[in-house]
Amino acid sequence: MERRLPINVLLWNTNMRTLLQFTKELPSDFVLAPIYRKDAVMESGKPATGKNPVEAAHKRNLNPADAALIVERSSKVGALGVWCGAKGNGLVILDVDRNLSALLKKWGETLSGAPVVRSPKKNAAKYLFRVPEALWGDLAGFGHSDEHPHGYEVLWNKRQALIAGEYPGGGEYTIEGDLHSIPDAPEWLIAEMKAAKAPTGLVKNRTALDLGDRTEDEVATIIQECLEVIPNEGGGSREQWVRIGMAIHSQLPGDLGLQLWSAWSAEDPEYHSEWQSGNPCEQPWQSFRPGRIGLGSLVWLADQVDPKRTRFQESSKQILEKAEAAKVQEIRTAVLTHAEVVKQAREILQLDNPSEINHRLNGLAIAAGYKGRESIEQLMLSQLEYERKEKMMSWAELSQEKFEKTFLIPDVLPHPSVVLIHGAGGDGKSMSAWTIAKHVAMGLPFVVRGRLMPVKQGPVLLLNGDQPKQQVQEQLEEIDMPRSAPIHIQSNWQLKRQNEFCQLMDTIQPALVVIDSLIGCSSGDAFDENKSSFASPLYWLTKSNGNLFPATTILIIHHSNKTGGFRGTSAIRDAVDETWALKRPSREQVEKDQALRNVRFINIEKSRSGRSGTSLAMRMEADLTFSVSDATPEVDDKKTTPDGIVDRVLLRIRTIYPRTITKPELVADPIVGGKVEAVKKALQRLEKKGLITSQKEEGRYGKKLYQAILARGEGGGECPPSDSVDPAGPPRGDSDPDLGGSSTLDGDGGQLSEDNTACPPSGDSAGAASAHGGQPDTYFHARDEAFDRWKMS
């Protein structure tokens, strides 16, 4: 992104090379409108003028993430607009076309703090302001007219303005100022907008009324207030145009209704040519007949833009509330029973066609007296929670329950759990997640504390809401994901689809679920990631894991903010079991070791499994595949806390593998050097993490024997290793045909050792960075040979 920084001013050059990045960095409450390039063919088949929003901008409130996806995918998009008024969360734009110097001379002081959008046109500028929500219903915008001849327009409800990209007349827009710090509109501008809202004389009687038997003027008040916020959608919007006409006709079938519909229709610039031969509204108006579309449809359309109904004066609000209350009471006399709703909803949710599901759920909601399908989905989720809930129990009963907290990958990925991994764009979050998914899907060994550990194989479910299928395919190919891998991919996923999530979990029973990404899978609804409510789906996943759906490990990909933390509310951290931060090595680290150029470190920031402060490493291998491994030292000599004995116990048990050892032997071992109770607790922790296993000797007084858990070929029980594999014993990792049968080891095979004179050596090697027993104390470089002996298939 090209930036120039005058004093306290940021200037954006928004050509197409930077339009995507510009879109992503806009304020989260901006409601955006990607704009067709000039002469691009729109869905209606007409050529664009360079000011036409894409069709989705009319139907949805697009936040920066939504708009960025459209900009990235469509070559027809050449610019970006932003909505004003209630739809735009109170944004108002002062659009100056001429007489800019006169305006600055008069009001320059009040304009100096506002961001400014400039185009190649001389004496033109757009100043951005905010309007307090309490005033939204009292204001109106206006254009050039005899009443407003001063060279500027005020863009408010139903209007959007271009702020970035290609200018239709040639050239590009630029922006000066901080879009994240937009000031409130000055008092003189508010005064002009209030004056523009003054009654036109069309509506006279404003007394309280019931819509069923009131005068035309009274009904026209509400219709006019709704039309003030419903935007014209241009080409391809004939269906909506007709529905609005029919809604007006249902209450005002005479000339007054036609006048209202015609005035609203004439504001659509894409249909100006239609008016040259007469009023295009007259013919369809005469064909309208009473039907299912009534005034409620018009109110509903306006509510999509202005959900808080700021457009209505107080008397209109009271009229509608009274009428709607009467309608609800009428519906309640004929609603379906709870059992009937649940039965029908279950049948609908089993369908394959999402469009049919939406249609039938909406119909069921109407029949049951609900506002929409969301209410039915929430009802079914509550029903599922009820059916799978557990009865109340005493503490004595709870204490007898056996809970198995295991690790999907030993001491790396808890199971069940919800883990959030965050990093900057392009740093490799998805590649890290896919590589971990490959280990789980194929049951491939994983390096933990410097040794290859077995991974229990299981299905993987990828829920993608962030990337096109082509990009997911490329990423999975880059990590050499076998086509036979039990990977299930669901694109265009939204976290709000909780019922469908439970169904997928019951069907697939995945060991690992990857959600890419938190923002991408939340974009179907308007949201503010800085509010605690944004974390609600994460709380639901954590709470329901193992209760409403089979226990699993859920890995959620998220984005980092500019300071390196994750974006959004701190409630996200509270909602999950672990947070992982993926970061590039520092410049100093890379200068010291060039091999780190291809490495990303994953630091465990928060962990309910006691793993905070540990790390993983992802890197690109020489064959251009990717690997992820534990980067935690096997023994950290700098660790002075009492829990360092856990590392020493693990190292000792691993060193003698495949032999076993007892607790008394560990206590007496000078290398371990710990008290009886400390060794006992260390063994308990290691066994719980899946790093060791235990079994009891036969006989009444048999002792408990402890053995390391290592992948085949990762043992240290032979020193030096033999050249051949014992047919009666377990195969080495580098000769296991199930793992591809390839190895880059030299002919000696087995575990590499720099010193074959003792096993283990009697003491530390002088000057060597090794722990007791000759085992390297850090993974990343010292344990590269583990990967050389095993290539992911």
Describe the model:
α7 runs antiparallel to α8 (255-265), α12 packs antiparallel against α13 (354-368) and α13 crosses α14. It is built from 25 helices and 26 strands. Residues 1-16, 200-210, 330-334 and 716-793 have low confidence and may be disordered. It has six domains: 3-196; 216-332, no CATH class; 338-388; 406-630, Rossmann fold (3-Layer(aba) Sandwich); 654-709, Winged helix-like DNA-binding domain superfamily/Winged helix DNA-binding domain (Arc Repressor Mutant, subunit A); 710-793, no CATH class. The strands form six sheets. It has a nine-stranded mixed beta sheet, sandwiched between helices. Strands 1-2-10-6-7-5-8 form a seven-stranded antiparallel beta sheet, with no helix packed on it. A three-stranded antiparallel beta sheet has the order 3-4-9. It starts with a strand and ends in a 5-residue tail after the last helix. The protein is elongated, with a radius of gyration of 33 Å. β6 and β7 (125-130) form a beta hairpin. It has 793 residues and is α+β, with helices and mostly antiparallel strands. Helix content is 33%, strand content 16%.
Average pLDDT figure = 78
Largest sheet: 9 strands, mixed
**Top CATH class of the largest domain:** Alpha Beta
The coarse overall form would be: elongated
End-to-end gap: 40 Å
Indicate the low-confidence ranges by residue numbers. Answer: 1-16, 200-210, 330-334, 716-793
Portion of residues within helices: 25-40%
CATH architecture of the largest domain: 3-Layer(aba) Sandwich
Question: What is the name of the CATH superfamily of the largest domain?
Answer: P-loop containing nucleotide triphosphate hydrolases
Count of distinct strands = 26
Bin the strand percentage: 15-25%
Structural class: alpha+beta
Tell me the strand order in the biggest sheet. Answer: 17-16-18-19-13-20-21-22-23
Determine the number of helices (DSSP H or I, runs of at least 4 residues): 25
Based on CA atoms alone, the radius of gyration comes out at 33 Å
Question: What is the name of the CATH topology of the largest domain?
Answer: Rossmann fold
Count of structural domains: 6
